[in-house]
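Milestone M4 deliverable, item 7.
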Amino acid sequence: MEDVVTLPVREQVADELSVSLDDLAREGARRMIAAALEVEVAEYVGRCAGEVDGDGHRLVVRNGHGRQRHLTIGSGTVPITAPRINDKRTDRKTGERQRFSSRILPRYARRSPKVTDVLPLLYLHGLSTGDFVPALKDLLGQDAAGLSSSSISRLAKGWEAEQETFRRRRLSFHRYVYWFVDGIHLASAWARMRSSVCWS
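Output delivered:
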């Protein structure tokens, strides 16, 4: 991995060059993710190096890179081009082709878990579905994934369903000595959840 001091910087005026901390953090994060993905793929291909077909050709090989996609992480939104693997092996039980699945960057991931975790908190604090993009675009970038009004509305429906499941869960399968009840009133856009009672 290249030393961060050699990162390309944005040209400002004539020969004067500078780089912001946010630009540096995003570029550093992009390079680290790319390097980690390359190591992950190399290890996977290396583990399968001994598996060959009848002609002696390897069944698991590198297959270039996928299309570039944008990944929203805590330091902003970065472009990622993940390496691909051609895995020709088949599962003996199901007969289906085996597929490589990255633990670092799952196939359809567009946001890091930390970014995903903070979205419902912002919603509970009163940020409306239409305000996510304007509120977070300077922090996470204009092309931050999953922050459109429709995306947040879909997420909100899921959060409401989770809350309803939690509220209706059965408690009869345990014997409780004490119950501690705590309530909180939430003045937010969450119309169905103006108040909530949590049990522990």
